[in-house]
Design a protein that fits this description.
Layout: H1 2-13, H2 15-18, E1 24-30, H3 49-56, E2 59-61, H4 71-80, H5 111-117, E3 121-127, E4 145-149, E5 161-162, E6 165-166, E7 168-170, E8 173-174, H6 181-197, E9 204-209, H7 221-230, H8 236-261, E10 268-274, H9 298-301, E11 305-308, E12 317-319, H10 328-335, H11 350-353, E13 363-369, H12 372-375, E14 379-385, E15 388-391, E16 400-403, H13 419-437
Parallel strand pairs: 1-9, 1-10, 2-12, 3-4, 3-9
Antiparallel strand pairs: 2-11, 4-7, 5-6, 7-8, 10-11, 13-14, 14-15, 15-16
């Protein structure tokens, strides 16, 4: 009854006046987590009751997309509210300079920077993947507390190394934790939440970024055995991934439990999402969408996006609003009582929390730059406007056009049938490319 009363009061008086205290913010971001591997969306072999709970007890978005089809660009956009090439990260930042395709612009404020100005304590737990050294370490990009992994992928979730090097840190200090990385990050997140529960007069922003379920697919043996017993007819590859995701879901459940146990639950806005679609070669599912990680087809871009905030969001809601992951940036700033910096590309989702219609006519832009013989260091892009999607799926093939309302699975390229739409979207796409091209994406040398 108390929760229902507060929700009615919030709707009647508006967010800022109804919530006496600023809300806490928790982003749970998983890595290469396919839309088809979250059971809130459809029947699947994977059971994700804890992730599902975020949507069941709040708001489930069915048409959200990540900002990029690979890791670093998506994360750079999420933390800045800007398209990734406009902050210098059109591609993956790697530990090998000759195969690194981004440089996170130190001049651009992050969500953590902005929330600190509004009185928030800021923490980042887990995968960073936006720089290994100054000026792009988490503590230099707005986070008061960092406990996690600076690099891209782990060679093993048990050894936590990448190319034999240790990128695990507690702020600037190298650390060597024991155990499965998913469990390690969960423990660190719970430690952070318990500490923040003692700071009763300061709200927090926690960015909890798991490496899982990014390959190598390494579920604990007991989780794999359980899945094989339940699903004896699935392939070994698929069973491995199902177990990996279910182990991750269990750990997320522990974080949600800590929120409840500490009394932080009611006024904490939790968002669950992923940095991009699942990797098809590793047994992950993006059903019903075409393609997967690295693709500009929706299998690479559509991601689970679930939001829970008992103080404000009525449970059981669903939205088909087609936004992007970086929309959390202006959403959090607005809810914290601030104003977003000029130049952001993201759109606040606060109207949806008030059950008000979002503005129409939005464009969604995507870019990825990559090396190796498959991509040659070049970029490829996509744009969505209304019912139309224009995309290139690698730097060498022609642009393709889809009517995603009539053909949501992107089966029929209609570029020849609709030349006027093709020309219009091509022109708009070129303008986005020009804007991104004005921002350096390689680390300046000392002579520069």
């Amino acid at each position: 009854m108390k929760s229902s009363w507060l929700w009615i009061l919030t709707v009647g008086l508006g967010l800022s006046s109804a919530i006496a205290q600023k809300p806490n913010f928790l982003i749970i971001l998983t890595d290469d987590h396919g839309y088809g591997d979250v059971s809130a969306y459809q029947a699947t072999e994977v059971r994700t009751p804890n992730i599902d709970r975020i949507g069941h007890e709040g708001l489930c978005f069915t048409a959200m997309r990540a900002n990029a089809t690979v890791c670093s660009p998506s994360r750079a956009a999420l933390l800045t509210g800007r398209y990734p090439d406009r902050v210098g990260v059109p591609g993956v930042i790697r530990s090998q300079p000759d195969n690194s395709w981004g440089w996170f612009s130190p001049q651009v404020p992050t969500l953590a920077d902005e929330l600190k100005k509004l009185g928030y304590h800021t923490g980042a737990i887990g995968k960073w993947h936006l720089g290994l050294e100054s000026p792009n370490t988490p503590n230099e990009r707005g986070f008061d507390h960092f406990h996690g992994f600076l690099g891209d992928m782990m060679d093993s979730y048990i050894t936590h190394r990448r190319d034999g090097k240790n990128y695990m840190r507690l702020n600037a200090q190298e650390v060597q934790p024991q155990g499965h990385a998913t469990e390690v990050f969960t423990t660190w997140a719970n430690d952070y939440l318990k500490a923040r529960a003692q700071a009763v007069n300061q709200p927090f922003f926690l960015y909890l970024a798991y490496n899982a379920p990014h390959f190598p697919i390494e579920p604990p043996v007991e989780w794999l055995a359980r899945v094989k017993t339940r699903l004896p007819h699935v392939s070994e590859k698929r069973a491995m991934n199902v177990a990996f995701v279910e182990h991750l879901d269990d750990c997320i459940g522990k974080v949600l439990a800590t929120l409840q146990e500490t009394g932080l639950d009611h006024n904490t806005l939790v968002i669950f999402s992923a940095d991009n679609g699942g990797s098809l070669p590793h047994g992950q599912s993006n059903a019903p969408w075409r393609g997967g990680k690295q693709d500009h087809y929706d299998g690479g871009l559509r991601v689970p996006f679930l939001m829970r905030w008992p103080a404000m969001i009525k449970p059981g809601r669903r939205s088909d609003y087609a936004g992007l992951s970086f929309d959390v940036f202006p959403t959090f700033i607005e809810l914290a009582g601030g104003r977003s910096p000029s130049g952001i590309d993201a759109v606040s989702l606060v109207p949806l929390l008030r059950e008000v219609a979002m503005p129409a006519g939005r464009e969604l832009y995507f870019v990825r730059r990559e090396g190796g013989p498959t991509y040659g260091g070049k970029s490829y892009e996509a744009i969505i406007r209304g019912d139309w999607k224009l995309l290139q799926n690698d730097p060498w093939t022609p642009l393709e056009l889809y009517n995603i309302k009539q053909d949501p699975e992107e089966k029929s390229n209609v570029a020849r049938q609709h030349p006027e739409v093709f020309r219009e979207l091509s022109s708009v796409l070129r303008q986005h490319i020009q804007r991104g091209g004005a921002v350096p994406w390689q680390q300046p040398t000392k002579s520069d």
